[in-house]
Design brief:
Blueprint lengths: L3 E5 L5 H13 L2 E4 L1 E2 L7 H14 L5 E3 L9 E7 L7 H8 L7 E7 L8 H8 L4 E2 L3 E3 L5 H10 L4
Parallel strand pairs: 1-2, 1-5, 5-6, 6-7, 6-8
Antiparallel strand pairs: 3-4
């Protein structure tokens, strides 16, 4: 088993595609976070649901993806940029695990906003871990861009 975990939440497959590329290039174990209640597949309705959850500080229960992380030393954590922060299922994952002594590497997909507060939010939830610079992509996933980023952060 690899000591690298690539965990992600994705509603519209963008973050999933980035997670798949990271897992491929790192030989990491892929883990999808699945909340107990799915968001609407209509963008506008999903946006209202998410905005409400974020404003209330709601952390959904995870029905998949929340298994122990003890066996992993490096954890890539992926999320869409939702209203300048993490998707609520990712925050659930972060609050339910101890990342002390682990290397945490954020990644996100976005519609033009970049990371916004995502890196800071992850660092706040993982205070005893080493946080490496992440990657934020808008649009198609370019394997060479992921490879260059992994080299730049010293992973490859």
């Amino acid at each position: 088993m690899s000591n690298t975990l690539v965990v992600y939440y994705s509603l519209f497959q963008n973050t999933k595609n980035l997670a798949l590329e990271i897992a491929k290039q790192t030989s990491g174990t892929l883990r999808e976070l699945i909340p107990d209640k799915n968001y609407s597949f209509d963008y506008n309705t999903a946006a209202k649901e998410v905005r409400n959850q974020i404003s209330r500080g709601f952390f959904p229960k995870l029905v998949s993806g929340n298994e122990p992380i003890d066996a992993y030393r490096t954890i890539f954590i992926g999320t869409p940029n939702w209203f300048k922060t993490l998707a609520p299922p990712v925050r659930s994952f972060l609050t339910q695990h101890d990342f002390a002594g682990k290397t945490v590497i954020p990644f996100c997909t976005h519609g033009g906003g970049g990371f916004c507060q995502i890196e800071n939010d992850i660092a706040r939830e993982c205070p005893k871990s080493k946080i490496l610079p992440g990657i934020a992509l808008n649009g198609a996933i370019a394997p060479e861009e992921v490879e260059n980023w992994l080299k730049a952060i010293g992973y490859k």
